[in-house]
Amino acid sequence: MRYSTNDLEEITKIFIKLADKLLKDKKIDEYTYIKITNKKKKFLKFIEKSKIRS
After folding, report:
1. Which of 14, 26, 32, 36 has the fewest Cβ atoms surrounding its Cβ within 10 A?
2. How far apart are CA 37 and CA 54, in angstroms?
3. What is the C-alpha to C-alpha distance for residues 24 and 28, in angstroms, rounded to an integer?
4. Which stretch of DSSP H or E encloses residue 46?
5. Backbone angles phi, psi at 28, to 5 degrees
6. pLDDT in tens, 8-52
7. How far apart are CA 10 and CA 44, in angstroms?
8. Contacts made by residues 39-48, CB under 8 angstroms, sequence distance 24+
9. pTM of the full predicted structure?
10. Alpha carbon of 44 to those of 11, 26, 27: distances in Å?
């Protein structure tokens, strides 16, 4: 199944919000939260750069 860039961007934002909630509820530790959000934020930056180039 193929997703459009907008779908992937929205899914990534939802995933970051989920990580925020899990950290707040103490379901994950801070180290895991940082690893998750860094990867997802880098992905969002990549999408933004590709939009600018297009």
Report:
1. 26
2. 26
3. 9
4. helix 30-53
5. -130, 155
6. 889 999 999 999 999 999 999 999 999 999 999 999 899 888 888
7. 10
8. 40/12, 40/15, 40/16, 41/16, 43/8, 43/12, 44/9, 44/12, 44/13, 47/5, 47/8, 47/9
9. 0.76
10. 11, 25, 24
Q: Would you say 20 and 32 are in contact if contact means Cβ atoms under 8 Å apart?
A: no
**Contact predicate 41/34, CB 8 Å:** no
Q: What length is written for the chain?
A: 54
Both tokens assigned to 18: 């989920």
Locate tokens 């779908």: which residue?
A: 7
- CA distance linking residue 36 with residue 15, whole number of Å: 9
Amino acid letter, 19: A
